[in-house]
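Priority: medium. Attachment 1 of 2:
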């Protein structure tokens, strides 16, 4: 049995569109609330990754392990850089921030998750060459913040009170959860809001609060939900269960009245049932709410496509844990808000694998602390998150205009803190696009694809170095890229404390020579992001802009313009028996080790370009 990760096989209930199986890894003992599903815990990450071979220690070469992947429509390419401007900046005179200046300073290719209907702003986005726009809709959107229409189509408690969104309770105008089962929510709030976005020129739609919060925050007990749950029980509950719950007349059963009668409508807290409600009946109610939400998203995305006359990429905030529970499955990809408590390499790797196995993609925001942090500690943690998500085939959006919890306001990272990493991405598009996961190595990660003979072994160093091996599927001649990220592990009982304050150190990387090119001698080159220099970054962006014709979108084709934002470092490597040993200097915190056949790299580059 493997340790450190779980793998779950989910089977969809027939009433939710027919049986379907897929595997999703679960980090540590992280429990997802999988409503209406048969959950079978199994122990092998190799099954989740879908690449283990029968017999022996697995395949010899990493190019045989890497599997082709087709990214969902509208999802970012591996070499894309996404910035979110939740509000177009400058908002007013004196606003020190500018959306388009930030996009250029961080070398962005995309602008995701913007709260605006301003067609002029959207036109400017296109003129700036940003390749994808997702304007935002949400589970608590308002149609008129100055009037009473924010109450239209909203979720209700058993007492008829509207469910205020807890994390937005401080707003002057209440933010109230919508109810996916109410026609008024669909027709008078959601559809008009989406129409405004699409008419303004949005390429896609981002849905914040896509889980609708109704289950975890009490559930909706409106007339539509009461009637829907009654029908749901008729198909799911047998006579013995109904008797146990003291439900005698299912044809007239009202769950709202039931909750009031058994406990006075007292809610016991987030994720818990109302007072007096049996746990299994509450669980069935959660299944109903989730299936309703999933159906809503499927129907609304069909409506969006019909309205726009094209496929509209549909992304969602899939929770602080980057969950792929059923109500998130209708979306093409996730763009979610990471928390510092899950901002560690084990979780990030597991969630990027989960997205890939479901045919999705995952972007996260800069981590959101639960309480104020030392700025330097936060900056170093965020840099490690950025490096790790890219190393695993995902993305971290530029740490700019990020909503912090409570009264902490918004965070606007500076180019001198993070632009070196994003420039490094733009410069190395050829080592990102087309490369797929082949191996993951580091503390807490168990990857059994190579059995007892992993392609790389990390020795010495900080104890917190991670190696993510990526290769071109089926291409035995292409260079292999090993992303090295040093989290600087530190002794502590608390996982986050270990990762937040550790310092990087030099280390040895032992490459199992035969795992790369069948025993051929290896040539290695270490690429790192050079220290930030404002003038160098500005010149790189100017070169990229001169390459771009009017209306052309930014992208990987501009990589040469950013060449100065990637530095090649000489590293010592020696062949010892079955290994090639590479001495790697301390990283800050990211480096790409390019592994190729000796003297073969130039030929490959010429052939592939």
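Attachment 2 of 2:
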């Amino acid at each position: 049995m493997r340790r450190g990760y779980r793998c779950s096989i989910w089977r969809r209930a027939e009433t939710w569109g027919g049986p379907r199986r897929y595997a999703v890894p679960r980090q540590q003992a992280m429990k997802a609330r999988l409503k209406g599903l048969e959950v079978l815990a199994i122990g092998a990450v190799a099954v989740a990754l879908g690449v283990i071979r029968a017999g022996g220690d697995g395949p010899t070469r990493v190019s045989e392990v890497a599997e082709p992947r087709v990214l969902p429509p509208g999802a970012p390419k591996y070499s894309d850089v996404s910035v979110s401007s939740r509000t177009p900046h400058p908002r007013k005179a004196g606003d020190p921030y500018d959306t388009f200046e930030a996009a250029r300073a961080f070398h962005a290719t995309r602008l995701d998750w913007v709260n605006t209907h301003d067609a002029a702003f959207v036109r400017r986005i296109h003129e700036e060459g940003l390749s994808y726009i997702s304007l935002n809709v949400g589970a608590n959107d308002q149609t008129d913040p100055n009037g009473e229409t924010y109450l239209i189509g909203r979720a209700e408690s058993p007492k008829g009170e509207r469910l205020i969104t807890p994390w937005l309770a401080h707003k002057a105008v209440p933010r109230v959860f919508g109810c996916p089962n109410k026609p008024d929510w669909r027709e008078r709030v959601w559809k008009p809001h989406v129409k405004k976005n699409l008419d303004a020129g949005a390429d896609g739609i981002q849905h914040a609060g896509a889980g609708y919060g109704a289950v975890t925050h009490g559930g909706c007990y409106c007339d539509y939900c009461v009637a829907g749950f009654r029908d749901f029980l008729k198909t799911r509950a047998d006579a013995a269960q109904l008797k146990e719950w003291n439900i005698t007349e299912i044809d007239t059963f009202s769950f709202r009245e039931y909750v009031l009668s058994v406990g006075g409508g007292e809610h016991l807290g987030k994720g818990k049932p109302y007072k007096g409600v049996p746990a299994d009946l509450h669980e069935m109610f959660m299944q109903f709410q989730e299936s309703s939400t999933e159906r809503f998203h499927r129907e609304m995305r069909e409506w969006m496509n019909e309205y726009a006359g094209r496929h509209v990429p549909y992304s969602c905030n899939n929770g602080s844990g980057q969950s792929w529970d059923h109500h998130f499955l209708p979306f093409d990809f996730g763009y979610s808000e990471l928390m510092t408590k899950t901002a560690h390499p084990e979780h990030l790797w597991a969630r990027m694998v989960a997205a890939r196995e479901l045919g999705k993609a995952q972007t996260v925001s800069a981590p959101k602390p639960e309480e104020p942090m030392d700025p330097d500690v936060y900056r170093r943690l965020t840099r490690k998150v950025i490096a790790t998500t890219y190393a695993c085939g995902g993305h971290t959006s530029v740490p700019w205009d990020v909503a912090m919890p409570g009264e902490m306001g918004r965070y606007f990272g500076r180019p001198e803190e993070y632009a070196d990493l994003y420039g490094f991405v733009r410069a190395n598009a050829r080592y990102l696009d087309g490369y797929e996961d082949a191996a993951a190595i580091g503390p807490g990660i168990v990857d059994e694809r190579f059995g007892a003979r992993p392609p790389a072994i990390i020795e010495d160093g900080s104890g917190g170095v991670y190696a993510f091996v990526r290769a071109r599927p089926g291409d035995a001649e292409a260079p292999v890229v090993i992303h090295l990220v040093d989290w600087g592990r530190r002794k502590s009982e608390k996982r986050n404390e270990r990762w937040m304050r550790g310092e990087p150190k030099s280390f040895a990387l032992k490459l199992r020579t035969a795992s790369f090119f069948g025993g051929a001698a290896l040539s290695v080159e270490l690429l790192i992001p050079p220290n930030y220099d404002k003038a160098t970054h500005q010149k790189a962006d100017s070169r990229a802009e001169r390459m771009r014709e009017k209306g052309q979108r930014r992208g990987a084709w501009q990589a040469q313009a950013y060449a100065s934002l990637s530095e090649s470092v000489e590293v010592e490597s020696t062949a010892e028996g079955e290994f090639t040993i590479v001495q790697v200097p301390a990283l800050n915190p990211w480096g790409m080790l390019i592994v190729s056949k000796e003297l073969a790299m130039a030929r490959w580059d010429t052939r592939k370009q």
